[in-house]
Amino acid sequence: MTVVNLTDILTDALKPHKETLKGWSVEDIGLLFMGFGNISIYPNETSEFDNDADFGGTFVENSNAIVQALNNIGIDISESDWDASDMYWLIQSYSGDIRSDLISIINNAGYSCYSWFDAEEENFEAETLSGWEPSTPNLN
Predict the structure, then answer these.
(1) What letters, b where the CB count within 10 A reaches 16 and e where it falls short, cover 105-119?
(2) Is the dihedral of CA 68, 40, 24, 60 positive or negative?
(3) Contact by Cβ (8 Å): 95, 64
(4) Which residue ranges make up each domain of the chain?
(5) What pTM was estimated for this model as a whole?
(6) Which long-range contacts link 2-9 to residues 24+ away (Cβ below 8 Å)?
């Protein structure tokens, strides 16, 4: 069994869009991930939720996964003097309110995005995110 983590999920989601992303500025790439915090990520068709199966991480974990996934597809944001700390501040901005094109490519990679929830809470609600439409370059 292959161990999957958020870096793997993002790498798979971003791969089909590699050439498009290579044409974007580092700022536009950063904006793709704005709000990518306080979310839960589970495989599509999950019907039973468990906190240990949630691929959404802390802001630090998510920002590191984003940078590594970009590196995995050949996009090195450090060439523009960006790093995980820059991503950290962008994902913290409007956390939990992510772009619809990012949700769509994650869905296409086999995963669904939800508003963060604690599966151990009684009567928790798994609310699927729909996202917002960007006015900047997008992957739709």
Answers:
(1) bbeebebbbbebbee
(2) negative
(3) no
(4) 6-115
(5) 0.94
(6) 4/55, 5/55, 5/65, 6/41, 6/55, 6/56, 6/57, 6/61, 6/62, 6/65, 7/64, 7/65, 7/68, 7/69, 7/72, 9/41, 9/55, 9/106, 9/109, 9/110, 9/111
Tell me the residue type at 118. D
The pair of three-digit structure tokens given for residue 140, joined into one six-digit string: 């739709």
Between CA 63 and CA 36 the distance in angstroms is: 8
Along the chain (140 residues), what's the average pLDDT of each consecutive run of 10 residues? 84 98 97 96 93 95 98 98 96 93 97 95 91 90
Which sign does the torsion angle of CA 70, 73, 77, 83 carry? Answer: positive
Structure-token pair, residue 38? 């306080």
